[in-house]
Amino acid sequence: MASPPSLLCLRPCPPLFGRSRSRSLYLHLSKQSLQPITSPRPCRRSVAAAVAEQLVPRPLGTRWRWTGVTGIVACRCFPDAKNGPPTPPADMVLGATKCCVEKSLDGWPVLRRWDVPWEWPTISLTMVACAVSFLLTGMVEQSILEQFGFKVGEATLDEKAEVLFLGQFSTTVVVLGAIFGITNTFRPFSDDIFRYKFEEPFKLQNGWLLWAGIGILVAIISIALAGAAMTFLNGETPQRETDSLVILLPLIGSSGISTACLLGITGVLAPILEETVFRGFLMMSLTKWFSTPYAVLITAAMFAFAHLTPGEFPQLFVLGVVLGFSYAQTRNLLTPITIHAIWNSGVILLLTFLQLQGYDIKELLQAS
User: Which part of the chain is the CAAX prenyl protease 2/Lysostaphin resistance protein A-like domain (predicted)?
Assistant: First the structure.
């Protein structure tokens, strides 16, 4: 009569990767099918040798070694016809599969995800902090202007432009301070998070200036096609009375000070703020749960909604997609910031030139 199976406890060798945790591995094996391996120093085998032994096919009845995160478990297995050959642990299979997938994406940086250290509560808290900081900064600025007796109706165009620049500057500082203040509690994190690097601007794989040039060309073509499609589908050009450009029309080309302030707002401060919030934080954080293309699309939609200009939503969405993929390719925030800055500054400079040539800018915007 066969002896009943027994529950044996095998303790793995000390960790190979510096982890202090140790677990007991319980194997429900029959006494007849388990023979211990005697090795004077089984724990000092190199990781490379252990992996190589796993990759080499072995006939039945030979030694099998399974490597996990806690060490190496070794046993001599003689599988019978009923149970078949032994199988490696599930965590080993999943880890190997994940490693293979990550290796296969090395040639496609635009598809790789970020190693995000925070969870949903941090994302929600940070976005709420950004919105509250934005609103409170505007209210405090308005209160300070009233205390100094500033009246918008009596101010000159240059004074209005200067006030707008100071308001945008303070908003940028406060909102970025909220983001970095919350996320810095998770340091140290991966070096591709909040990365602003000027090195290797023309590197083919991730040169920030090279891909910014590619992105601006793609954006011009894509936005032109989106505008043409909207005009064709709507049958008429949508009204743009509430668009930001129409609101800024009195300042465009009025003087050198006004133009410089507008370029500082639209070409420097706004791109740094918006790209850090939407691409540098939100899009990057979403890759913890979504693939990178989905994170790009979600962020582009939120970016378009945040501008509160329904007539420009398709164009802003397309621009957001280009900005997102350019950032995913280079992992450098200078890329979307440069695209955003060139786009905004180009529009302001073009409208200023047309204004100086005597064209009706408002009529041109309505027809565009």
Answer: 260-345
Cβ(334)–Cβ(197) below 8 Å: yes
Note whether 178 and 80 are same-domain residues: no
Q: Which domain holds residue 100?
A: 6-104
The whole-angstrom separation of Cα 183 and Cα 117 is 9
What phi and psi values does residue 172 have, to the nearest 5 degrees? -60, -45
pTM metric for this prediction: 0.72
> Which among 51, 76, 104 is the end of a domain?
104
Query: In the prediction, which pLDDT does 74 show?
Result: 41
Q: What angle do CA 224, 319, 310 make, to 5 degrees?
A: 85
For residues 226 and 158, state if they share a domain: yes
C-alpha–C-alpha distance, residues 273 and 321, integer Å: 17
129 and 274 assigned to the same domain: yes
Computed on alpha carbons and rounded to an integer, the radius of gyration of the chain in Å comes to 30
Instruction: Yes or no: say if 29 and 8 are a contact pair by the CB < 8 Å rule.
Output: yes
Q: CB–CB of 263/345 below 8 Å?
A: yes
Q: Are 317 and 162 in contact (CB under 8 A)?
A: no
Domain for residue 109, yes or no?
Answer: no
Pull the structure tokens for residue 344.
């905004």
Q: Do residues 152 and 214 share a domain?
A: yes
Quote the CA–CA distance of 241 and 233 in Å, as a whole number.
20
In a domain, 11, yes or no: yes
Q: Give per-10-residue mean pLDDT for the chain (368 aa).
A: 44 43 39 44 47 48 42 44 53 51 60 95 96 94 90 87 94 97 94 94 94 97 91 66 66 86 94 97 97 97 92 92 97 98 93 83 68
What is the bridge-based pairing of β-strands 25-29 and 6-10? antiparallel
Nearest-angstrom CA–CA distance, 133 and 173: 10
Amino acid present at 186:
F
Same-domain check for residues 96 and 122: no
Question: 260 near 164, Cβ under 8 Å?
Answer: no
